[in-house]
# Entry
Amino acid sequence: MKEKLDYIIVGQGLAGTWLSWFLLSKGQRVLVVDRIRPKAASHISSGIINPITGHKHIKTWKIDQLLPFSRQHYQQMQNLLGTDFCYDRAIIWNLLKVEHLNNMHGRSATRGYEQYIDKVTSNAFSDKLVNSVGHAVVQGAFQVNTKKFVSAYREYLQEKGALLEEDFLYKDLDLGNAMVTWKNYEAKKVLFCEGYYGLQNPYFKPLVYVPAKGEFLVVKIPSLQLKNAIIKGKVLIVPLEEDTYWVGATYSWDPLDEETTMGHRKQLIDKLEKTITVPYEIISQHAGIRPSTKRRRPFVGLHPEYAQIGIFNGLGTKGVALSCYFAAQFCDHLLEGKALDWEVEIAQFWVE
# Structure
């Protein structure tokens, strides 16, 4: 006799964590199948929800919806799990070019930006930063210790008997009828939240990923003394534990592996030294692969031929916010038939 479930979710990164939570909170019988991969993107992410992004200093896609929704639900999850892993932050942009200073001034006067850009000035923020033409303070940013979050939620799933710690083998999946069967389980649907490993999924080959390898350093900088702020200069400096910081990140596409490189280490050190003026000590170096997509939008939805399987993947560098918001939307789509945002629905990306 097979155990009956509503949903099997493959993967317990940010996507699988949030999707399983919203389904469980609606009374669904859920099993998450996942084997820990320490270098998965959810374990090494900087965890930032940044309202202003890029060289043009524009608002992050859907930030007006993503930020309040994510802040509310991460804080609720923090209370549920009984551990601290989310923090309000300001982002200090150390502006190194006059055009960037002028651009920030222009944005600060643009309707819809006033709630995020708090101050733009030609003064230096601190003598601990490399000389600049000025700085801007972006408020409303949010940081999640993603490794701590997914680890705490994993314990929650274990306590609920809703986690199976093993690899999901596609050959064991049977889509022969209205239900799906996998090993000793029968479910309404299987939902794939596999991150980078989704590139190997035989059911979703028409979806085009553009995965990128990223490397970062964990650095000790005692005299920087930043507790509630993030520095954005040549490199991003994000506070971790006392006196230690996440410093990154690089991008590369060949080779696409999880090994650290001396070349990227030197690149990060060079950028760090062009951002700060104080001594530092490198603690460690890490690498991982971001499951990005060609259009920089996540893949959400059910397979066009097999309605018993679905996907939630391709979150890229903004996965902390996208995972929470679109997991809730996908849950409503599955249970209530509500429409998905057309920009993420997989029909937009399906390439035969």
Remarks:
- The longest helix spans residues 63-81.
- The chain has a mean pLDDT of 92.
